[in-house]
Design goal:
The protein has about 425 residues and is α/β, with parallel strands linked by helices. The chain folds into 2 domains: about 10-40 and about 295-420, Lyase, Ornithine Decarboxylase, Chain A, domain 1; about 65-285, Alanine racemase (TIM Barrel, Alpha-Beta Barrel), CATH 3.20.20.10. It has helices spanning about 25-30, 40-55, 75-85, 95-100, 120-125, 140-150, 185-200, 225-240, 265-275, 290, 325-330, 415-420; strands at about 10-15, 15-20, 20-25, 35-40, 65-70, 90, 110, 130-135, 155-160, 205-210, 245, 280-285, 295-305, 310-315, 335, 345-350, 360-370, 375-380, 400-405, 405-410. The strands form 3 sheets. Strands 4, 13, 14, 15, 16, 17, 18, 19 and 20 form a 9-stranded mixed β-sheet that branches. It has an 8-stranded parallel beta barrel with strand order 5-6-7-8-9-10-11-12, surrounded by 4 helices. A 3-stranded antiparallel β-sheet has the order 1-2-3. The radius of gyration is 23 Å and the shape is globular. It binds ligand LLP. Ligand LLP binds near residues 173 and 211.
Amino acid sequence: MHMTNSKTGFHNHKGVMYVDDVSLSDIAREYGTPSYVYSASVIREQYNVLEGALACALPKKKKHLLCYACKANSNIAILKLLRNLGCGLEIVSEGELVRGLKAGFKGNKIISTSFGKSSDEIRACLEADILQFNVEAEAELEMINAIAGQMGKIARVAFRLNPDIVGGGHSKISTGRKEDKFGNTAAKILVLYKRAVEEMEHVTPVGISMHIGSQISQADTFRPGFEQIAEVTEDLRAQGFEITHLDIGGGFPIVYDNEDILDLDEYAGWVKDFIVPLDVHIQMEPGRYMVGNAGILLSQVRYIKTTPSGKFMVLDAGMNDLVRPAMYGAYHEIRPIQNSGRTTTSNYDVVGPVCESGDLFAKGRECQDVEAGDLVALMSAGAYGFSMASNYNSRPLPVEILVDGDNVAVINKPQGIEDIMVRESIPSWL
Ligand code: LLP
């Protein structure tokens, strides 16, 4: 691989886009496209920036815990990288638990926030002795108590609050409005706390959790949620209940376009004003922030198709590889990997090969002219990219590659076509 040696992350060097010391055209040549490429140094930097902002504002004596929400990107190499930095883990399924354990996370740094927890998952979490179950519903609480009873264990539980707040960059990722399925009212939390303490021997309530949405760009959005968490905490304490842990969620944004992003110091300031005085262990669940800007989807232009209504840039990546534009109308910057020297631009509809008109990464996007065979990067695809990819149209999942300085590793082999069908069978009576 061709080396430079200076910059980290995604940058241009002599007209070619690099990740750390490695040229993306070399990566495409060696591993093919479409491919997800991640920068370890960007992940480290994101973790350190967030940790740094929080460390300045929050007390040292009760160290806060960042639990990486691994739904954003659950590759076990990425998990290992974050674990090595001292991060905790937030999981939403038994699969994510297994990934976390494989990456070396200890149970005492794992929080489960899953919705509609299954009994197998609860059992596996108790087996791993996880730090905390964030409980979504009374039925979940009863199940956790019953299973913990069968296993002779005690589960630490927190109750998720629904503060009825609109937060997040898109309606589908806003999770704290009263019409959303998530969380409980303050009144319900009181009932649950009381039941847990008075009637259930195998759960110990430790606190409250909240997550109001994703890609939240204004620190102000968090403030009413923090106020409510503080109020509920005080009410519960006034009734004699113990609150030792508050999980204040994730939702930290990244840059996709040129949007304003959250002022972390202002955010940390609200935490300091509303949560710190409660003298609790503070937990947070950032997902996108840790990995979003650390990854790209590298793709090759198959051809340009011109129709009476416009020019289509047809990529080898499709909505099955990166579903965010089709699903949320999300913006991803599209950058050519190599400076072709062409000075003209066109407005392209950037599409994939999937048989749906919704397989559209960008509509009428102005871009330097490209030709068949050129490489482009769909930027900021490290979060909710591969983790939401599918085999739609029987397209194999793309390869995932991690770069760290001049180290390059395949951290997930490309799927083969036969791999897609490996669990299928044709019944004998057909
Ligand atoms: N905690 C809970 C309980 C969550 O539901 C989520 C995300 C997070 C933490 C992490 O949120 P983050 O820090 O990443 O914003 N697929 C969508 C995003 C869905 C987010 C779901 N929950 C997208 O591609 O934008």
